[in-house]
Structures are given as C-alpha cells and as structure tokens.
Specification:
The two termini are 18 Å apart. The chain has one domain: 3-Layer(aba) Sandwich (Rossmann fold). The longest helix is centred in the C-terminal third of the chain and has 13 residues. The protein has 193 residues and is of the alpha/beta class. It is globular. Helix content is 30%, strand content 21%. A seven-stranded parallel sheet has the order 3-4-2-1-7-8-9, sandwiched between helices. The protein has a two-stranded antiparallel ribbon with strand order 5-6. Strand 7, helix 4 and strand 8 form a beta-alpha-beta unit. It catalyses: [protein]-L-glutamate 5-O-methyl ester + H2O = L-glutamyl-[protein] + methanol + H(+).
Length: 193
C-alpha cells in the first residue's frame, strides 16, 4: 500500500463526515509532510465550526482555506461554508461562488477535479460517508490523472450512498475502514527520508 510520491491529500464527506474525520484527523502525525484539504457539506446559513472543533483534537495546525493563500505542507484546511474550494497552480487556493454542484457548495467534485489538475499522480483523494453522489466524478478525475483513490468501506459509513456512488463510477485503489485510511495517510510521514 505505497503512498510514496504523494504531495497532497483531499478528503470529501457529507452526512456522518464530522464523526468520520474525528476518527481520522486526530490520528495524523504532526510530522505529516503534505497538506490535507477537506470539503464537508455544511449548512450554508451558519458559520463553520470545524476549525474550532478539530484544532483542539489534531497534532497538525487546522485552518479555514483562504482565497489566494498558498497551500502549505503539514496543515489541515477546511473549505469555508457556502464557497467552492479550488486548487490553483502555485499551489494555492481559490474560492468561488459558482452554482452548487449536486446541490452542494462547497462541492467535493470541484475540489477533487481542480486538485487532480494541479497534483496529478501526486494526489491522494478520499471519499467518506455521505448521502449524495458528490465526489464520485471527482474521484474518477483523480484516477484519470494517475492519483491514488480511496473510499471508506461502505458498510462502516454512517451513510453509504456516497462511497457506493464512487465505487460504481470509477476504479478505486483502496476501500478501507477509517482507521485504515488514517494509517495510509499517516504513513506518508514515514515515507519521507
């Protein structure tokens, strides 16, 4: 299960995603040499509390992604509520208020597709629990670009629809429980000498 050569991790989730991330993100080591960029479907009308929640639990610094900000290794970034989060060459972030995709803004597909354009085979993308098909097309784009694709074990997911959609849409490199996904991402620290 080699993840050598990975330069960024993107994660998408919806229903049950906060609980899934509460298993994965605190398990990641402080020495992680790549950025972890997360889109969770959130209510648009409320500010996101994800940074507050996860800052206390994680060894890595946690922040909300800012428009035009450079993407730094060893950080966890969350998409702000009601904005699409895109990866630009640099690499840096871009925020957009384009139409929702699969009724969602931020959209997992938008993050995954733009990250695949920038990182290509150096990207690891993870689809977690969720009740929509957002993420399936994005994961397929990562696969086409040569990146590593991971889907949460549907039987373990609070809402299996999103992982199942991803599995139906494209070949996937790994289908793992949350602990296995955390181990795979955490192993990136060990792969750097």
């Amino acid at each position: 299960m080699s993840a050598a050569g990975i330069e960024a991790v993107v994660i998408g989730g919806s229903a049950g995603g906060v609980d899934a991330l509460a298993v994965m993100l605190p398990a990641l080591p402080a020495a992680l040499p790549v950025p972890v960029i997360v889109v969770l479907h959130l209510p648009r009308e409320k500010p996101s509390l994800l940074v507050e929640i996860f800052s206390r639990q994680c060894a890595l610094p946690v922040q909300e992604a800012q428009d035009k900000a450079p993407i730094e290794p060893g950080n966890v970034y969350f998409a702000p509520a009601d904005y699409h989060l895109l990866v630009d060459h640099g690499p840096s972030f871009a925020l957009s208020v384009d139409e929702p995709v699969h009724y969602s803004r931020p959209s997992i597909d938008v993050l995954f597709e733009t990250a695949a354009d920038v990182y290509a085979e150096h990207l690891l993308a993870v689809v977690l629990t969720g009740a929509s098909q957002d993420g399936a097309a994005g994961l397929a784009a990562v696969h086409r670009a040569g990146g590593t694709t991971v889907v949460q074990e549907p039987q373990e997911a609070l809402s299996p629809y999103m992982p199942e959609s991803a599995l139906r849409t494209s070949p996937v490199d790994h289908v793992l429980p949350l602990a296995g996904i955390a181990q795979l991402i955490g192993g990136l620290a060990a792969n750097r000498t």
